[in-house]
Design brief:
This protein is an alpha+beta fold. It has 4 domains: 4-95, Uridine Diphospho-n-acetylenolpyruvylglucosamine Reductase, domain 2 (2-Layer Sandwich); 102-229, Uridine Diphospho-n-acetylenolpyruvylglucosamine Reductase, domain 3; 246-368, 2-Layer Sandwich (Alpha-Beta Plaits), CATH 3.30.70.3450; 479-540, no CATH class. The chain is 36% helix and 18% strand. The protein binds flavin-adenine dinucleotide. Flavin-adenine dinucleotide is lined by residues 34, 74-81, 83-84, 96, 116, 137-139, 143-144, 146-148, 151-156, 214-215, 219-220, 373-374, 376.
């Protein structure tokens, strides 16, 4: 419970209409089923109050009030996922939806300065009018580019051209856990927003690494995002939504489905395509996954037929979709010819999808706007994903294969939904030398047997990642952090130190930043626990905790 004194100070900070401790309102924030792999709970801890600040100064006042009253704070932008909820019993949820402005778009220097709740769709619509575009992380246009750039992950299907969210930060405004404001990058020197590093030693690495602090080291109230070229029209007319969407197909763009015969030629072709700097969007998933999200019930029926399982599961295993963009028809013509030549040189086929207009008029802008991922919920109601670190493209291929084997076991035990096991979200970065592969698994949270699978399957993926000397990306998960910290430069020890220095009042809800927790081994076979301990011993070596 929050004291009346603390509550009235929150009212002073944001105004009485923008704070609540109504149980019904608080429960609205505690219901967080997305990516929630708790074997029982779909709820997270209930906040003691929710505040809706409208500006940086109000955020500072909220954080100061929390420090004064021994409360914690947990901010979110659009709040889509379990990682947005409180992990303690005395948390004030800071919902940033009133901070939804695009503060500046600098067309000449190609950047945009935005607030937390300026969602990707809004920013994209405004930048496209100027022939510019932004990186949208794969969760979709309804999400916050600021949250992705400053606080959590950041892969998207435009990463082949626009890379990974943290690489696009060109300055950020950060309310530290003691309420002070820090401007990272050139704005920190009172200059314009054009560089994410400095003044002096760069704090960008403290702000975040590849996973992000997930709200554990303060609240970001503004961020400058690098923008990229958009060669399409200022406004792309669209009727309908998602699978029923019909968009005009911009000129100077192409859409190809590239199928390669096997692993070796797929990897080689990807490297060649990377060298030729082709691709505005690029994504790979399993052919069956399209049917899985487009017609889940039909998919359920078709996959009961062995022959169809084979066709859907094994043919077209190495397929990558490419969206091409150029300044002229000639440039797109060159890219198309180069792509087709490279794929043909490696025994594959690059199908120009523009001949299938209905599909392209739905899918091309669906890719550019990143609208399609949310369909992953359709078949069972929920999903989770097996991630490992972004790394060299071969390692991602190893990871995909390993996760497929793990999933086959759990599908056979009916612990997760049968999606034919191969269900990657595979995205190359920049020159295709490095990539991101996460393997999706879908489940029905209403089924006990599915929920009971969530902890042991997570353990299986953690073991697999260590066996491949890959840190599980969910190093943001407290269960994993204690295990891999010693294997990865004791990163968690350092993160704890950063948290202690930046947050002497322990006001930030930092569980997802530096907290550690145990696996619920009552749900895991003892042999797996033993296997994990063995792996940690094997990899740890002699390096002692630096503190
Ligand atoms: C269907 C689906 C697909 C997804 N695909 C991808 C993907 O391809 N790539 C990817 O990167 N992620 C992906 N995700 C994860 C996604 O990034 C998160 O779900 C995220 O929560 C989406 O919302 P958001 O970006 O608006 O951030 P939020 O939900 O608002 O927050 C994300 C995290 O950042 C913290 N945070 C947010 N704003 C601030 C702030 N201003 N200051 C400090 N901390 C803050 C929050 O506490 C939370 O921990 C996917 C999720 C779903 C559900």
């Amino acid at each position: 419970m929050i004291s009346d004194e603390a509550y009235s100070q929150l009212e002073e900070a944001v105004g009485p209409d923008n704070v609540s401790r109504e149980p019904g309102v608080l429960d609205g924030y505690a219901w967080q089923p997305t990516n929630n792999d708790h074997p029982v709970e779909r709820w997270v801890k209930r906040p003691v109050a929710v505040v809706l600040p409208s500006c940086t100064e109000e955020v500072q006042e909220v954080v100061r009030a929390c420090n004064r009253h021994g409360l914690k704070f947990k901010a979110f932008s659009t709040g889509w996922g379990v990682w947005c909820g409180p992990t303690y019993d005395n948390v004030v949820q800071v919902d940033l939806r009133r901070m939804n402005r695009i503060l500046e778009i600098d067309e000449k220097n190609m950047y945009a300065v935005v607030e937390p709740y300026a969602i990707a769709a809004q920013i994209q619509a405004e930048t496209m009018k100027l022939g510019l575009n932004l990186h949208i992380h794969g969760s979709g246009p309804n999400c916050s580019p600021l949250a992705s750039a400053t606080s959590g992950w950041g892969v998207g299907h435009d990463s082949v051209y626009m890379s990974y969210s943290p690489r696009n930060v060109m300055g950020a405004e950060w309310v530290l856990p003691d309420g002070e404001v820090l401007r990272v990058g050139s704005p920190g020197s009172g200059l314009d927003w054009f560089c994410g590093d400095g003044p002096g030693p760069s704090l960008r690495g403290i702000m975040r690494g590849s996973a992000g602090a997930l709200g554990g080291i303060g609240i970001f109230t503004a961020c400058c995002l690098k923008l990229y070229k958009w060669t399409g029209p200022p406004v792309v007319k669209t009727r309908g939504t998602l699978l029923d969407a019909e968009s005009e197909i911009p000129e100077n763009m192409g859409f190809f489905m590239c199928a390669l015969p096997d692993r070796a030629r797929f990897l080689e072709a990807m490297l060649r395509i990377g060298e030729s700097e082709i691709g505005y969007n690029a994504m790979r998933t399993a052919t069956a996954a399209y049917l899985n999200v487009i017609a889940p019930h039909l998919f359920g029926k078709l996959t009961k037929a062995t022959s169809l399982r084979k066709v859907l599961g094994q043919t077209l295993e190495y397929v990558m979709l490419f969206v091409l963009a150029g300044d002229s028809e000639g440039e797109v013509g060159f890219q198309s010819a180069a792509l087709q030549a490279i794929v043909a040189d490696h025994g594959g086929l690059a199908l120009d999808m523009s001949v299938i207009r209905p599909f392209v008029s739905m899918a091309l802008m669906g890719f550019v706007r990143a609208t399609l991922p949310a369909l992953v919920f359709r078949i069972g109601g929920s999903f989770n994903t097996a991630l490992c670190r972004n790394d060299a493209i071969e390692t991602q291929e190893n990871w995909r294969e390993e996760c497929m084997e793990i999933k086959k076991g759990w599908i056979a035990r009916q612990g997760i939904i049968d999606d034919l096991a191969d269900n990657p979200y595979y995205v190359p970065y920049e020159d295709n030398m490095w990539a991101h592969c996460e393997v999706v698994y879908q489940f029905d949270p209403r089924k006990d047997e599915h929920r009971a699978t969530l902890e042991p399957i997570f353990m299986d993926f953690t073991i697999a990642a260590l066996e491949q000397c890959m840190e599980p990306m969910f190093s943001s998960d407290p269960r994993v952090r204690g295990i891999i910290g010693p294997l990865a430069g004791w990163f968690n020890t350092w993160q704890k130190k950063v948290s202690e220095r930046l947050d002497p009042g322990r006001a930030a809800d930092s569980t997802l930043y530096c907290g550690e927790a145990e696996f619920d081994i009552s749900r895991i076979e003892p042999s797996k626990v033993k296997q994990l301990e063995e792996l940690v011993r094997k990899h740890k070596g002699s390096e002692e905790d630096p503190v």
